[in-house]
Amino acid sequence: MDIKTFIVEMTKALAWPVGVVTAVLLFRKYVVALLPHLTTLKYDKFEVQFAKDVAALEKQSQTELPPLREKPGLDAVREKLTSLAMPSPEAAVIETWRYLETKLLEAATRHKLDIAPAVRTMPMVLAALLYKNGFMTEAQYALTYRLRDLRNDVTHNPGATVDIERALSYIESALRLAASLD
């Protein structure tokens, strides 16, 4: 390989990394300002998941919902979901959502809402009915939507990963919401 070929090959190999580094350095203020808004950063097989969404959800549930009262059976549910989160955080999120669906149906039934049989399997419609009839606050309704969106992300996004801490936070927020429906 002569010197000219070497220079051409080195230029080809370094063009992309040098361009990225230069762009990041030139726009570092803007890049730093955007970092808090990232939820997932993925390049090839490298993926970083940020738990900002779950942290915000947990904060919202703590500030806008009443404190979690201990009820018979709640510890058993928490234990079951927590033990599921250890080997499979994604499964724990999905199972937690199923538990919340059950609690929404129980609340609608307890308040004697007129529910068509097909609606019994539609948790967001149940939440809307509870909200519309004054049995659910706006904060509870918004939290239900956020929990559903996170569950959808886990269920329908094949690249979504959930760590144990994030799953446990999701579980606590959902249990607090479910308890507040009683």
Secondary-structure map:
Blueprint lengths: L2 H24 L1 H7 L5 E4 L2 E4 L2 H13 L9 H12 L3 H22 L12 H10 L5 H19 L7 H17 L2
Antiparallel strand pairs: 1-2
Strand and helix order: HHEEHHHHHH
The level 1 CATH classification of the largest domain is: Mainly Alpha
Mean pLDDT value: 82
- Helical element count? 8
- Class based on secondary structure composition and strand pairing: mainly alpha
> What is the count of structural domains?
2
Measured as a percent range, the helix fraction is 55-70%
N/C terminus separation: 77 Å
What does this 3D model show about the protein?
- 68% of the residues lie in helices and 4% in strands.
- The protein has a two-stranded antiparallel ribbon.
- Helix 5 (89-110) crosses helix 6 (123-132).
- It is elongated, with a radius of gyration of 23 Å.
- It has 182 residues and is mainly alpha-helical.
- It folds into two domains: 1-37, no CATH class; 51-180, Four Helix Bundle (Hemerythrin (Met), subunit A) (Up-down Bundle).
What is the compact description of this entry?
The protein has 182 residues and is mainly alpha-helical.
